[in-house]
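Box 3.1 A note on notation
Throughout this textbook, protein chains are presented in two layers. The first layer is the amino acid sequence; the second is a token string describing backbone geometry. Keep the layers aligned when reading.
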Amino acid sequence: SLTSNMYGQRCVSRVYQVESQFAGLVIGAKGAGIRELRDISGVVDVKFVARRDSETSPLTVKATSEGVCEEVYNAVQEKIRSVDRKKMMFTKAPKPPVTQIFIEIKENMKICLKPKSEVQNSKIITRDARGKGIFLFSKYECLGLEDGLSSLQITNDHANKMDWLQFSERDLIDSLNKSFSKMNKEERKAFDFNMTPGKFTFIGNNERGGKQIIPNRCGNIAKEAFKAINVAPVYSNALKKSLYPEVTKNLQLLGFSNLNSGSPEQFTIVHLLAGDNQERFSVVLALDENLEELSEKSDSRLSDEKKKAIENVFKAKTIIEVMGNTHMYPKIAFHKLSLLLHPDKNSHPGSTDAFKKLQHAYQEMTAGKSHSTKALNIGKVPDIKANVIRPPKVISVKVQKRKVANITFFTSNILDMRMALTTFKEDPNKLTNHVKDVLNECWGKRDAEGGILTPDGKSGIYIQCLKQVTAGHIWVKPIETKYGEAILELKIKEMREKVENQKDWQECVEIDMTIIMEENEKERLEAEKLASYILEIRQVWDTLVNQ
């Protein structure tokens, strides 16, 4: 509506509806929010009537023009969006339905914690605890008489109600059976199984001196025991880079083979929230070099080694020639060649056909066919076009990703182990053009080391975690289990990461261990067999770090 002020100037009045839940944000402390809006140039008056009995409340703006009225309303909406952004940024992933921590501690022992600054041999990197104190595991210690009395006072409920349990293989199998019951048929075919070394940090008030966690008479620990000393356990799998040469040396001593020593993987992982429903995406971007454009000569997905691998597969006449005339286990040979030939890792125009030929050879060989069996005919090697590749290339988009289980083993070792079962769907089409455009814009503004920047608040995309893998090394070894031979894979990722609103990159190493399994193996996998794999991996890891 048009009105005039006391000086005869014509004014425009507009009434906007604002969600009532944000009334306090609009009004501000003692009306400061309304005063800020009235201070906008061209504003004559602003009135806001908070209505608790209605979903919306009227915001009346009187100004010298319609544009100024819109400016006031946009300022209110930006305040609301900033609150939504903060909520989204710190929205944690749902807790896995199966979460169990097993402890291995002798009878009549307690867990001693010390402030981070007093623990010299820690191998983990701890993130900023926002003003809180960080305590690390120091040692196990015998209970004194006073400690024994304290443990008697801690509730001795049934073990299932306890937070941390004494380890038993039977309890592990029960936890895994429960995990499998949380998956549908499709998820059973394509879940991720990973074992990740790390250690618990304990976040609490900034206090001098150590803290003690006292188990109950059965050696289990209830949540009340942590609350009693004001700490919260948080698992960290970000390891110090100084651990990398030590682990690499011991891998060689234990007979592991490095599948990609000539071309370590390079990629960026982006965990983000997007859309009105705050949908979670895990996006993998190829390439990390700090270049405005990448010609074929500088593209790590078109290295000389990868070109040669393409040519060899196209020329191969028999399945053993496709597999590289190697004496390696077929599963290891296939895995090694996949790293060179898969279209996500090789930008050669012949990579798709070459990978199909490799899959065919592997299937024939594992079916028991003769090594001289004819290989799939895929024609001649296509020419490489002299084109320019503009990064980033989205090589993987995971949606509906959820942790089904987190099972952690707490010991007196320098590093412990966490087992995770994760389900997801691969769906590149889920990534909208808007999200791709924002990621491309962030890529264009990347820093001197090639790390992409986080998008601004107006994009509607909120990055929770960035991981820039500068070198991913893949090691494998056949191991004997009570269920027969299996291939153990260990991935070491040298990387930089940035979590939530963290400003600086953090250099670290992450290690993932798993057993290589096909879809049909995963579908038939029983809890007893997976438990044996977990125990075998733990044993190998303990040998690695104590070699």
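The longest helix spans residues 66-89. The mean pLDDT is 84.
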